[in-house]
Write a structure and sequence with these properties.
The complex is a heterodimer of chains A (163) and B (167).
Chain A: E1 21-23, E2 38-42, E3 53-56, E4 65-75, E5 81-86, E6 112-120, H1 125-132, H2 134-150, H3 154-162
Chain B: H1 4-29, E1 38-51, E2 57-68, E3 77-88, E4 93-105, E5 112-118, E6 123-124, E7 134-145, E8 148-149, E9 151-161
Antiparallel strand pairs in B: 1-2, 2-5, 2-6, 3-4, 3-7, 7-9
Classes of the chains: A alpha+beta (163), B alpha+beta (167).
Amino acid sequence: MGFIKDAMQPAGSLRARPLLTQIITLEEDPLNLTQGDILFLHMNEDPIRAGDIVVFNIKGKTIPVVHRVIQVHEQQNNKEIYVLTKGDINKKDDRLGGIYGSGQLWLQRQHIMGRAIGFLPYEGWVTIVLTENPIVKYVLIGALSLVLITSKDRGAKQNSRLV
Amino acid sequence: MHSFGYRANALLTVAVTILALMCAIASLSDNFNSPTPSAQVQVLNINWFQKHQDGNDEISLTLNISANLQSLFTWNTKQVFVFLAAEYETPMNSLNQVSLWDGIIPAKEHAKFWIHTSNKYRFIDQGSNLRGKDFNLTLHWHVMPKTGKMFADKIVMSGYRLPQDYR
């Protein structure tokens, strides 16, 4: 699984990058995840079924959304699928709640980027701190460089003893 | 090799490794749990039937849902998300799943419940297939762990049928 961290914005949505693990940095999230959790995503050929937590992209919006599937209509033969989603604590589904594009009634296979399969609590905080305070990043890199420069070269010391 | 920096680094590395290991073990311990959930649903009444302008059928039901999901909870369980879906086939669609009700069970004490409710979400078909339709009511649950892999399962209850005619 890939490992990528995104800074998020409030309103239950994520900024997109096409890799497989994302960090929730929202204060409030429909799936009862809290800021700083890492969510593991996976995509395979299994059919989408009601109850799955999916990550999807809406045309025209840059931010993907992580919500639960509450309705599935799968056609005979060509297996085209129509999906309706909703955040767990939202009162309205995503169609009524304005999350889908205007005039869009369903999600289809091509909109869905992945399915959530597990999560690790709290491990995301390091990245959040780094992303939101770039100063910390520079300080860390500066400190690491300092340590590198000032460390003694043990190899050379060993060699000089043998002489 | 014995400076504060090296020791601090070694300590931190070991600590993080152990933390990751503990999370993995916690998650694996869930595999030893063999749950024995049970559930029962009664359709008490079909409240009304409506045909929308775009041709889609909609019905409203009153349900009695009772379940015992206590055996799903382990010490690594954060909450259980449970929902009831009506599942049926139509000429156009090989599968339709429509969620009628859902809830979040935060703790084992709340996992044995019964509720009397009308459908929380609208039961709207893609088309006009709800008269006389046979359907299953499936209670699904998703166990969300404190750490690790989520898992889901369901109980399928079949034998429900919508009436052919409505008053």
